[in-house]
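Quick one before lunch.
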Amino acid sequence: MTRTDLSPLAWLAELEQQRRQAGLRRSLRVRPAVPTELDLASNDYLGLATHPDVIAGGIEALRIWGGGAGGSRLVTGNTELHQRFEQQLADFVGAPAGLVFSSGYTANLGAVVSLSGPGSLVVSDAYCHASLVDACRLSKARVVVTAHRDVEAVEQALAGRTEDRAVVLTESVFSADGVLAPLRQLHEVCRRHGALLIVDEAHGLGVRGDGGRGLVHEVGLAGSPDVVLTTTLSKALGAQGGVVLGPPEVRDHLIDAARTFIFDTGLAPAALGAASAALDVLIAEPSRAADVLRHAAALAEICGVAQQPDSAVVSVILGDAERAVAAAAACLDAGLRVGCFRPPSVPAGTSRLRLTARATLTDEDVELARRVLRAVLGDLPPVSS
Ligand code: PMP
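Model of the 4'-deoxy-4'-aminopyridoxal-5'-phosphate complex:
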């Protein structure tokens, strides 16, 4: 057989077979507009995606500005909505300035790549989100991956560096396990070694801090000249898009240098209208942030997770991927949609159910969750939590 006898895509079938055997096939499911199951899988932590004000905000922006931004923000895609929203969010989290990107993913790529680069060092927590991992790969910096939440390892990496510039990456609330980063200690270490701290607040915004201002605000680091935040508008704010927040010179630099800003179409106006309205709701109803944590605590208790959750995420580790997939499927059959995280999203052997609490869960919702999860997990004690 010659090379030309083979289809250039023949290798895909073999890989598909390997993934199937390892329980790692993924499939797309169409979600109905009105959910038929109780949703404990989405990241709509505050229940704002379908809030009437948020829908109205999106519609109004669509009506005024049309379906798309029409170009990159440096050409025709920069509207007053973009400018106004980034300042509104910056004021809320206590940052001097903000810059909107088309997603949290592109915000992370833009921030990390533009603030590091060849000849610099990037130190990243092993559990950082794929977008931060990809940012490290694109940065052309020397990258050191440290154990999860290991401040000592970060200190060592910074102390032993030969590069002039260094950046430390962490999530504030880690998406896979819902635990908090040791932000204060990381910041102290960064200060001691002249490093910039970049914190991804994707899962902290709207959940942690005074009225949902995020974990950076909660630990007193808002507005620090050596801290940059990134976040998504697609979780607590129920919309779409991403933002980098920090000192004004960082905003100026990203406009000049971030390829995911320069070469990407500006965020769609409807997403900004929705996100801005969502932020208004959160400001008017700050108790939503506390409601999420209260409901997360109830879910953790139901699942027998001893650790009190620090975020909306409740992680029930079940071990191998098949076990987690089977448990998630059993929940779905019983009317409960939960997340299921498997490698490569989490390390091998730690596949898990990932439940997300929502501010708007009712007592009936929690009772349904109790019935289903107790039945499904009854025979499946968590490996750990
Ligand atoms: N960072 C983290 C921690 C995330 O969980 C996500 C989304 N899963 C992103 C960044 C990317 O955000 P977006 O979905 O807006 O691209």
